[in-house]
């Protein structure tokens, strides 16, 4: 499939509704994958990192202090929560903005690292979002997604994920999107995908922008 079944207005409203308690519910559920992903982040001092769909800032505490982190989210209410958290962490190196991941307001080749935790399955056009991620990443830069990704074609699990997709999209994400495939299709070089979270339902997907692209 090329486009997810997501209605962006619905998603924005839903995540705005979730924002005051997101961290207590989904934050904990999705925490192990998120924490583990940061072990693979090759962040050096003074590097620029972009995190798309940052939500209420569940990852902020994992960033090293000398990194410049720009976090964006479509929901103003999520960004408000993330700013409160950044203030508690004394995080002067966080720049948190309301923005659509499908239309990133940054120049080409701008960030050393782009992180996308549990967001690619919440957007209407995952191809467009992955193209934008690739565009703003510097050649050779690191791209990390933490996400559920649809099981392979022909598998029972893949069929179940297709059947469940219309239900789960009401809760806030699709289950029928092969995130790894989308990332590769747009030209992201895949290094590895490591299972994570309860029953290995998630993947830490590590990739990079090809040098010279
Ligand atoms: C499942 S939450 C993930 C939040 C956080 N990254 C985490 O690790 O838990 C998905 C987030 O993506 C945001 N989002 C959805 N569509 C977006 C878009 N087009 N652009 C930017 N953010 C978006 C939602 O508002 C929400 O905060």
Small-molecule binders: S-adenosylmethionine
Strand composition percent: 15-25%
CATH superfamily: Vaccinia Virus protein VP39
Q: Rounded to an integer, what's the Rg over CA atoms? A: 16 Å
**Total of DSSP H or I helical runs spanning 4+ residues:** 7
The CATH topology label is Rossmann fold
Cα shape: globular
Tally of strands: 7
Structural class: alpha/beta
Helix content: 25-40%
- Poorly predicted sequence stretches spanning 5 or more consecutive residues: none
Our measurement of the CA-to-CA distance between the termini, rounded to an integer number of angstroms, reads 26 Å
What can you tell me about this protein's structure?
With 213 residues, this protein is an alpha/beta fold. It has one domain: Rossmann fold, CATH 3.40.50. 35% of the residues lie in helices and 23% in strands. It is built from seven helices and seven strands. The protein has helices at 8-18, 22-29, 31-37, 76-88, 126-136, 156-171, 179-186; strands at residues 48-52, 68-73, 94-98, 111-117, 137-147, 189-196, 202-208. Strands 3-2-1-4-5-7-6 form a seven-stranded mixed β-sheet, with helices on both faces. α4 links the parallel β2 and β3. α5 (126-136) crosses α7 (179-186). The protein is globular and about 45 Å long. The mean pLDDT is 94. The structure holds S-adenosylmethionine. S-adenosylmethionine binds next to α1 and β2.
């Amino acid at each position: 499939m090329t486009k997810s079944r997501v209605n962006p207005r619905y998603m924005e409203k839903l995540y705005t509704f979730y924002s005051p308690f997101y961290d207590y519910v989904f934050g904990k559920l999705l925490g192990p994958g998120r924490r583990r992903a940061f072990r693979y982040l090759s962040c050096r001092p003074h590097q620029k990192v972009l995190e798309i769909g940052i939500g209420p800032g569940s990852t902020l505490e994992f960033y090293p202090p000398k990194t410049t982190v720009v976090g964006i989210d479509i929901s103003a209410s999520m960004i408000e929560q993330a700013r409160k958290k950044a203030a508690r962490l004394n995080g002067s190196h966080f720049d948190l903005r309301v923005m659509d991941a499908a239309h990133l307001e940054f120049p080409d080749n701008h960030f050393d690292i782009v992180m996308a935790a549990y967001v690619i399955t919440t957007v209407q056009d995952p191809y467009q979002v992955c193209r934008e991620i690739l565009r703003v990443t510097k050649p050779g830069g690191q791209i990390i997604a933490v996400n559920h990704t649809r099981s392979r074609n022909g598998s029972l699990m893949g069929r179940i994920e297709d059947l469940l997709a219309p239900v789960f999209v009401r809760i806030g994400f699709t289950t029928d999107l092969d995130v790894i495939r989308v990332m590769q299709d747009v030209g992201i070089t895949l290094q590895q995908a490591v299972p994570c979270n309860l029953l290995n339902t998630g993947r830490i997907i590590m990739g990079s922008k090809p040098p010279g692209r």
